[in-house]
Design brief:
This protein is mainly α. It has helices spanning 2-21, 30-40, 47-58, 63-84, 101-105, 107-125, 128-134, 136-150, 155-164, 172-197, 202-229, 232-235, 241-245, 250-254, 256-275, 283-293, and strands at 94-95, 98-99. It has a two-stranded antiparallel sheet with strand order 1-2.
């Protein structure tokens, strides 16, 4: 399939750029730099940066201009996973089939590694090299947008609500809030970033924001489903942990079959949004379908 070739090519490009951008562990203190690289190159799907580049290209923009932001978003995503896995949060031993960062480097280094990746992401987005590619005004606009979606009004807010909702009977509205923020927010930011780099119109940005929220929500629902009926060998992390911890999930509130129908409907709605736009490529629609069909 063309989309598989595209994803493979863009994933290679992103990995090469991440390797170039991340600090090399040859200077002191080496431990934090090794730790940053360990989790960043632990086999992620690179969904968020690929969505960023795919959106930019679909609107006729240059993926080279979007690349620093795509890599910065992946750093932010990696930091969030490192912190999620900590004993104080989800207390997971494995991530992508490998020991979690705190199991490999210790809890204190894992905390600081997350901090380092988050900080470094904004260093990349505001670096002279990045500003030269897109201009200062656009770099600031994108950086603020990503900060909004990664912070208390997005991912962090969703994670707090997730923790506070454990082992409680919550409403469907609260569950949707958790998933839209803890997962869909950064996915939406990735898509919005690619669109802004490509000089999209206000209407296009509104449509793509809606698209991002829908596939982001579907992605997390699929994650919830895989935690029930997935395989550790494929997902690379513990299965059944959500139920053990009393996590607020779609299968817990709606049941497995209804959750699958909700995810399918969200992808159908996201397809309709893309079909209503005059995009150069079908990458976004194809990636949305892959979100629904994935097994890891």
């Amino acid at each position: 399939m063309e989309i598989e070739k595209y994803i493979k090519a863009r994933k290679k490009l992103i990995n090469e750029e991440l390797d170039r951008l991340l600090p090399n562990p040859t200077t002191y203190p080496q431990s934090i730099k090794k730790s940053m690289r360990y989790s960043t190159f632990a086999g992620g799907k690179r969904l968020r940066p690929i969505l960023c580049l795919a959106t930019c290209e679909s609107l006729g923009g240059s993926f080279r201009k979007a690349l620093p932001f795509a890599c910065a978003i992946e750093m932010i995503h990696t930091y969030s996973l490192i912190h999620d896995d900590l004993p104080a949060l989800d207390n997971d031993d494995f991530r992508r089939g490998m020991p979690t960062n705190h199991k490999k480097f210790g809890e204190s280094t894992a905390i600081l590694t997350g901090d380092a990746l988050l900080t470094y992401a904004f260093q990349i987005m505001t670096a002279p090299e990045t500003i030269k590619r897109v201009g200062a005004e656009k770099a600031v606009k994108i950086s603020k947008d990503i900060a909004d979606k990664a912070g208390i009004f997005g991912m962090i807010g969703g994670q707090v609500a997730d923790i506070e909702s454990e082992k409680k009977n919550i409403s469907k509205q609260r569950l949707r809030f958790i998933h839209l923020n803890k997962t869909a927010a950064l996915i939406t930011a990735s898509i919005r970033t690619g669109a802004i780099v490509a000089d999209c119109s206000k209407k296009e940005l509104e449509k793509l924001t809606n698209f991002g929220e829908k596939i982001g929500l579907a992605f997390q629902i699929k994650d919830d489903i895989l935690n029930v009926e997935g395989s550790k060998d494929l997902t690379g992390k513990s299965v059944g942990s959500d139920a053990e911890k009393g996590k607020a999930t779609y299968p817990a509130l709606y049941g497995l079959e209804k959750s699958k129908k909700i995810a399918k409907k969200l992808i159908e709605e996201s397809d309709s949004i893309i079909e209503s736009m005059n995009l150069k490529f079908s990458y976004l629609k194809d990636i949305a379908q892959m979100v629904l069909s994935r097994n890891n």
